[in-house]
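I hope you will forgive my troubling you with a question about protein structure. The matter concerns a single protein, recorded as an amino acid sequence and a row of backbone structure tokens. Please examine both parts with care and let me know of anything in them that strikes you as inconsistent. Thank you for your consideration; the sequence and its tokens are set out here:
***
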Amino acid sequence: MSEPILVAQGLRKGFQSGTQWLQVLNGVDLVLEPGTITGVFGPSGSGKSTLLHILGTLQRPDAGYLRILGREVFQLSDGERSRFRNRYLGFVFQFHHLLHEFSALENVMLPLLLAGVPDARAQAEAWLRELGLLERAHESPLRLSGGERQRVAVARALANRPALVLADEPTGNLDRHNAEQLLEIFQRLNREHGTTFFIVSHNPRLRAICHRVYLLEDGLLKPAEP
């Protein structure tokens, strides 16, 4: 049996808001197995994005333990953690965060160039072809539709063939047609490439593609039915 990609234990996180302390995560435990799609659902403000940012090593927890691919990531230096994140993790956000001064192809090439991949252009083109965007490779993101921009963001997230893709409300800025198309892409990538996804959302349609589903309530993950 393969080792889990990610193991989290007792993750806690709170924030100061004016004179009040808001405890967002109250001891989250989670195991992500390779080749699975895991969904976390809950209303806005429940802490879903905070949890994703911690699991993605973008934010440090107040307490708890996080191991990804056997590495205790918060024991790494900032530079080591940044390199680890670029090599092994991919991110898809509600807003695509593409760089408008670069073409779609150049946006996808960026994580490859940062990782020193010698054939960055060829690999970026391969991912754009995979997602049906090769003919749009040299367009600015400003000339792409919302659905196309999000597919470019997915290609960028997958560029380094990460062990884990973390998606934060990936359909939140899309119409129903493009949202359904994106979910089909996630399913296909999981099926054909074994890509592991961790998705946080309040879109109930995402449940249909998940192998495991959790609700985030009172700062804790509670198993739910897909």
About this structure: Residues 6-224 form a domain with the Rossmann fold fold (CATH 3.40.50.300).
